[in-house]
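dude i think i finally got it to work??
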Amino acid sequence: MRSAGRTREPFLQFMWGVVGAESTTGTWSTPSETGPIPTIDAEVVADVAPGDAVLVVHKGRNEGEKFPLDQEDISVGRGKVADIFLDDVTVSRKHAIFARTEGGWMLRDNQSLNGTYVNRERVAEHSLTTGDEVQIGKYRFIFFEVPQQ
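look at this
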């Protein structure tokens, strides 16, 4: 089980702004805020296999932590059986599923109480693209997929 919200060393440093440009800083507190969504440095996905994806925490506990999406279905939640455990009371036990499809990665909310957000909009199901911001509870992730070769 992968875990967020527990004391750990961050896996990587998160880079704000456009890759290759000067880094900038910023803060976010609610899904209704506006402004650019930060992107991640290319080094983040250096060890990710083609067709796989990665989530990088950019807001919340363990900022900078990386969660590889390297199985067909990956569950996210506060329950002990979740593949990605998020230690936050606003996260449902079986909150959402990341599913690999023929067309890429799909995020499905599992009828969670507080919802799942992509790019600050509540979604029931959403086809993810590189650079999407995913919010589950207080955690905000940047999604990055490595294309098939």
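The radius of gyration is 14 Å.
im so relieved honestly
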